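Page 42, continued from yesterday. The earlier attempt failed because a stray header line got pasted into the input along with the sequence. Redoing it now with the clean sequence only.
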Amino acid sequence: MNRQKVGEQPLKKRKGPGPVIFLACCWGLFVGLSEAILLIIKGNHYGNEFLFIIFGGIIHLFFYGLVGVVLSVIAVIFFKGKKIGFFLDIIVISICFFISFFIYSAGLINIYIFPTDFSFFSIVLNVFILFISIIIAYRVLKLLVKLKKKTKNWNKMMFIVSFVPVVIIIFMFFGAIIKGNNPGQTKYQTKNEIIKRPNILFILIDALRFDHIIGSGYHRDTNPFINSLGKKGYFFNNAIAQSSHTKVSTASIFTGLYPYNHNVFQISQGLSNSHTLITESLKEYGYSTAIFSANSFVSPVFGFDQGVDYFYAPKPAIRQAFLLGHILNFLSESGSPLKKIRVVQSPIILFNSLIIKVEDILYLDKTKFGFDANGLNEAVFSYLEKKTDIEPYFLYMHYMEPHSPYDPPVPFNTMYDPDWQEEKVINFPEEYRGKILPFDVGRKLPEGQIKNMIAQYDGEIRYCDSKIKQLYNYFDSKGLLENTLIIITSDHGEEFYDHKGWYHGHSLYQELIHVPLIFFWKNKIKDSKKINELAAHIDIFPYILNIISDKERKYSEGIPFMRNYVISEFDWGGRAAKAIINDAYKYISISKGFSKRRQLFDLVNDSSELKNIINTRPETANSMEGLLNELKKIGKKSRNKKVKLDKDTLEKLKSLGYVK
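This time it went through. Structure tokens are written below.
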């Protein structure tokens, strides 16, 4: 017989695991809602805020609900039909607390301090965090035991606590309604008079590296039509992207700012409406604006809709904005450290697939033409056929070809590889996202597979070239070419083990940041030429404004096309790189966690960047590093506000070509 102490409340027991699962689900809902709210407070762009909050809650509700199911199954087996008391509640709370603390502490450290590559230091630190998490969870458990002794009705308290997230979500619902679905959108007043200004067709070809086009001397006829435009316009031999990743690079194009100024680096970061985009500036001059993007990074979710009248784009992987979603996605990829432990990775892959399905349901794509090059063209044709106003227009087109997977349609799949066989295609080698060169290198593939990938990549370039020709012919048939400035470039290149890496976004070598840049204007550009001087993406914004108006604008850092130095960078938290390039050398500073490496390359005599001369030319490296740091320092001081520059600073800027 159990004896009850004097003054102690009788222990009310319940039967069944239902309350345990409910409690775990509510915990997950609370965690998910909290993270979503914090992300919104930070000012990131996720479209409909209420929908984003709901999605964050669902991700965590499913995850912690699954934890509750597992704990309930264990409890049922352990108790074998006996009634389950309050101690199972406190065990569930303690375990949920442990999981939350460990995921967020270890996750943030691996993303922002150490790369998520399970290096020795990160493993040691993660084990330490695991130990701390266990201690904290144990202390929480003891605290709850003490709290139970002072609580008259434990079950009622648990029920009330479980519904706290519901109250929060009700408040957020009304807040989202009051604030609106797109608070960053701005109303624009156009000028009354319609001034005859050129239409602008901006074409961006994703992941097209410079040395795979005809104009670079490439041995394959990959872009005959684009090359013909380059011969009749301005063809830039030394155009440098401001990053090797799409969102960072395109943010620089749209703002005319270096990455350290627009500060769009991480997966979840979007353009602030404090920056003036090229679309917003053009609205002031009476332009209508439209964006047709096959890349989900260039979408309204990330703030690219500012000043845009019509947007056609796929949804991004919104789940990765949440730390749990980011980790699940990482552990589901082929490069996951758990790939050899199938019994662990398989459930993670299944759960990640469930989250993707939920995301697809909540964020439906309402675009009907598709997002291959042909679909993008059809979307533009449909838009222009319905367009009846007489305003000049800015059309931005973002083709995904030749971005991976490398899978061109017939006949482009056999154009450069007659022996092509579908079952032998390696569209993408083992993923090394999250890696950074030269710290981490990819797995070397057989030469035959590399040759196959490059042939398919080149086939996609040729396919995209044919679709740009189709677009050009449409404009020509409508009599639009005479008054249309065409700009063609790429956001970054692609690596095929040039420096022991694959894909892009992991280094700042030339194969990733040296991009094509062409300006064509039928019968208007008569002094066609190849331009060998350094150029940058941030120069395009001011160049366009110079064409449509002689009014001096101070929105961007572009010159345009009159510079001595170009900067390129990326920052993935614990993995970052920055580079500065002049007409002879490139200096790169790379950091991974607390480790740092420096490189200096002689681009005149070593264009492939195979020999690091940092030890033989330390004075050059130090000078370029000092200049890079000074420029970034000046840029951060002037971010979002006017700064009065002193005499020394003005002289430095003049020496760089930033000030005349």
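Notes: Residues 18-179 form one domain.
Reminder to self: strip header lines before submitting.
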